[in-house]
Amino acid sequence: MVLLALVLVSINLRPAITTIAGVMTQLEDAFQLGPQWLPLLGTLPVLAFGVSGPIGPWLARRLGAGRAVAVALLVLAAALIVRATVPALLLPGTFLCGMAIMTASVLVPQIVKTNRGTGWWTGLCTLGFGLGAALGAGLVRPLEHALGGSLGGALAVWAVPALLGAFLIQRSGGGPTSAPAAAGNVTSAGNAASAGNATSAGNAASAAGEAAALTPDSPSSAVAPSAVVPNAVVPLRKQRTAWAVTAFFGLQAMLYFAITSWLAVFLVSEGLSSADAAALLAWFSLAGLPASLLAPVPAGKPKVLRVLGPGLGLSVAVALIGVLVAPSGAQFLMVGVLGVVQSAGFGLAMALVVIRSAGPLTAGRLSAMSQGFGFALASLGPLAAGLLHTWSGGWEAPFLAMAGEALVLAAAGYLAIRGPLVSIETPKATAKDNPGQSSTPELVP
C-alpha cells in the first residue's frame, strides 16, 4: 500500500512543469503572457524547489510523513486549478505548484528508508517521476483538443491524480514511523524512526569496512572502509559527502530543467513543427522510464556504483552534443538517448540519498538538503540556457555549457560515492539500562 501510494505521489511531481513546457508557445495568447516572462515561467517552479526544501521535514515532524505528503498534494491540486482558471495567477500559481512538489518530493526518500525499501522501491518512485513528466508533456495537447480547445482545462485536469495521490498516501500513513511527533521535538522524530527498526549509526559503525544498507539483504554503497559512519557525528552541513550528493542532485536537476524548458523551442528552430517538438519532449521523458526504474537497482553493488556515477555524467555530455549536431531526421534517436542517460542520472541521485544515509532521519535531512540546495542551483538552468541563447543568437553556447556542466556532474558523482557515509544519528548510551533494545537516535543539526 505504501509503495503504491509512493509511486502515485511520484507521478504527480512533474506534470505541473512539463505541461507548461509543452505549450510554451501558446501561453502568450491563452494567458496574455508577454514573451519576456517565458524564461521566468520556466524558472519559477525550480526556484520554488530551492526555497521550500525545509518545509517537508518540518511538516513531517508535526503531522507524520504520510500526512505531510497528503497536505502537499492537496495544495498542488488547488494550485493547478487556480493557475489554469485565473490567467493573472499563472506565475504565482506555478510557484506554489513548485513549493508543493518540493514538500512532497523531499519526503519520498525518507519514507523509502523508513520502510526499509530496496533499490526497486527507489526505482519505482523515479519511474513515477519520469512517467508523470512524459504524461504531462504528451497528453497536454490531446487533452486540449478533447476539452474543446481549452488549454486551461488541459492544465487543470492534473489536479485529479493529485487528489487521488493525497488520498492513498493518507490511507497508507507512509509506513510504521510516520506517526506525528511532538511539535518542534526533533528527538520524538528520532524515537519514531527507532521504533521502525531503523539501523542506527552506531550499529553501522561497528561493521568495519561496510556501509549502511537499504535493507538487511540489499547492500548499499559499501565502497571502501572509508564509507563507515564516523565515530564523532558532525553536523550535516559539515559532511563533505552530503555536499557531494547535493551537488550531484543539483547538477542533474539543473540539466533536466534546462532541457525540458528549451528542448521543444530548440527543435522548432531546427525545422520541426510545434506538435512534433512537443511529441519529442514527451519522448525524452518516456524513453528514460526504464533507466529511471533500473538505475537504482545495480547502484547497491559497489563495483557498479563506482562506474555508474562518473559514467552517467560523461554519457549526458556526449548525448547533449549529439542532439545539438544531429539532423532533424535523427532527433528521435538522439533525444531518446538523452532521455535514457538523463533519467538514469535522476534515478541515481534519488538512490544516493537513500544509499549514502545511515538511517531514516539522515535520509530525510539529506533529502531536504540535497533537493533544497540542489533545486536552488537547478533554478539557474532554464534561465541560463535562455540567456545564453539570447546572447549568442544560436543554440551552440547553451548546449556546450550544458555539456560542460555534465562533466562536473561526473566529478560530483565520483566524490559522492567515494566519501564516508552521511549520518546525523548517534546512539545514546542506554544499553546498560535497556539491554537488548535499540538505542534512541539523536539528531545533530
From TrEMBL:
InterPro entries: MFS (IPR011701), MFS_Cyanate_Porter (IPR052524), MFS_trans_sf (IPR036259)
Transmembrane spans: 37-56, 63-82, 88-108, 120-140, 146-169, 242-265, 277-295, 307-326, 332-354, 366-391, 397-417
Keywords: Membrane, Transmembrane, Transmembrane helix
Top-level taxon in the UniProt lineage: Bacteria
Gene3D superfamilies: MFS general substrate transporter like domains (1.20.1250.20)
Keyword Transmembrane carried by entry: yes
One annotated GO molecular function: transmembrane transporter activity
Name of the protein in question: MFS transporter
